Amino acid sequence: MDIKWDDKVCIHAGECVKGLPQVFKIENDQFVIDPSGASEAEIREVVARCPSGALKVEG
Ligand code: SF4
Fold first, then answer.
1. Per-residue pLDDT reduced to its tens digit, 1-59
2. Beta carbons of 3 and 33 less than 8 angstroms apart
3. For labelling, which of 10, 18, 37, 44 has a CA lying 20 to 30 Å from the CA of 27?
């Protein structure tokens, strides 16, 4: 699955990193998304909680 993140839209509320830290992480000050860290359903649930709409699942 392809997850898109728009840094101009993100308000850094942290819902994603708090919700699924094994998928949404900060590494070396960069926001990294590792879709292999959780099931597709879990990832979709956290993406739906993103308050700004910065996260989108494509495909
Ligand atoms: S949940 Fe959305 S707004 Fe919050 S940090 Fe993640 S991408 Fe940014």
1. 899 999 999 999 999 999 999 999 999 999 999 999 999 999 999 999 999 999 999 97
2. yes
3. 44
Q: For the whole prediction, is pTM greater than 0.90? A: yes
Going by C-alpha positions, the residue among 8, 9, 56 that lies closest to residue 33 is 56
CATH of segment(s) 2-58: 3.30.70.20
Place of tokens 């959780």: 38
Contacts of 17 (CB under 8 A, 6+ apart): 24, 25, 26
Q: Which of 4, 5, 16, 24 to mutate to test the pocket of ligand 1 (most atoms within 8 A of CB)?
A: 16
Write the single-letter amino acid at 9: V
Please work out whether the CB of residue 43 comes within 6 Å of at least one atom of ligand 1: no
